[in-house]
Amino acid sequence: MSDTKKFLLDGKPVVFQDGQTILEAARQAGHYIPHLCWHPDFPAHGSCKLCIVKVGGRHVSSCAMPAKEGMEVESNTPEMNGERRALLQMLFVEGNHFCPSCEKSGNCQLQALAYDLEMLSAHFNHFYPNRPVDASHPDVLLDFNRCIFCELCVRASRDIDGKNIFALTDRGIHKHLVVNAESGRLADTDFAASDRAANICPVGVILHKRQGFARPIGERDYDAKPISVVAMEEVEK
Ligand code: FES
């Protein structure tokens, strides 16, 4: 008797190993589930909820939910994609995302997901928070207006670079990313452009100076293919 374990994802069987989450097993089997705060090099964070799926009538974060034998998972359905669109709309209005003038345009996961999930408007009222940029560092600009609180820079700086440069502070609508320095300025830390944390932001908060718009339209990450295709090509590499 085979001891291969499987669950159903949108009616298709997905083989998994013990300890894998729904998202990990789905990716390994070639099925894309949208995500923003999840990254293969880090434990699940569970904050963005873009990876939401329906299991047994409940909405769960597939990046954090362990796969179980025989479970029936709904992901690429009008209901789940509608939930994801609403979450994206909330992310867009709680920050200041001006895609046409953003250096990360075309390479931004938030923008790419909005295109892929056919988000046509922000729907909700914009908060227009006041978040000054930090241009103090010689090589890196911080534009906090685009932060989606995925904490990938926080985690990378703490767990990989061993520097603990970033943190989230405050709660609810006042939550924001800060630099761990008495002055609050990036220039007053030992942050380097080669740090993992400097190269992990899925949106346009951490930008390398003198490299803006270096890749022309047509050659950017998501110009030719949607994020749902690009993300799965990365799995195959
Ligand atoms: Fe699962 Fe963000 S990817 S909560």
UniProtKB/TrEMBL annotation:
Entries under SMART domains matching the protein: NADH-G_4Fe-4S_3
Cofactor: [2Fe-2S] cluster; [4Fe-4S] cluster
Residues of the 2Fe-2S ferredoxin-type domain: 1-79
Pfam families with a match to the protein in the record: Fer2_4, Fer4_15, NADH-G_4Fe-4S_3
PROSITE patterns reported for this sequence: 2FE2S_FER_2, 4FE4S_HC3, COMPLEX1_75K_2
GO molecular function: 2 iron, 2 sulfur cluster binding; 4 iron, 4 sulfur cluster binding; metal ion binding; NADH dehydrogenase (ubiquinone) activity; oxidoreductase activity
Gene3D superfamilies reported for this sequence: 3.10.20.740, 3.30.70.20
Listed GO biological process terms: ATP synthesis coupled electron transport
Location(s), subcellular: Membrane
This protein's UniProt keywords: 2Fe-2S, 4Fe-4S, Iron, Iron-sulfur, Membrane, Metal-binding, NAD, Translocase, Ubiquinone
Domain 4Fe-4S His(Cys)3-ligated-type, first and last residues per copy: 79-118
GO cellular component: membrane
SUPFAM superfamilies, sorted: 2Fe-2S ferredoxin-like (SSF54292), 4Fe-4S ferredoxins (SSF54862)
Entry's family note: Belongs to the complex I 75 kDa subunit family.
Name of the protein: NADH:ubiquinone oxidoreductase chain G-like protein
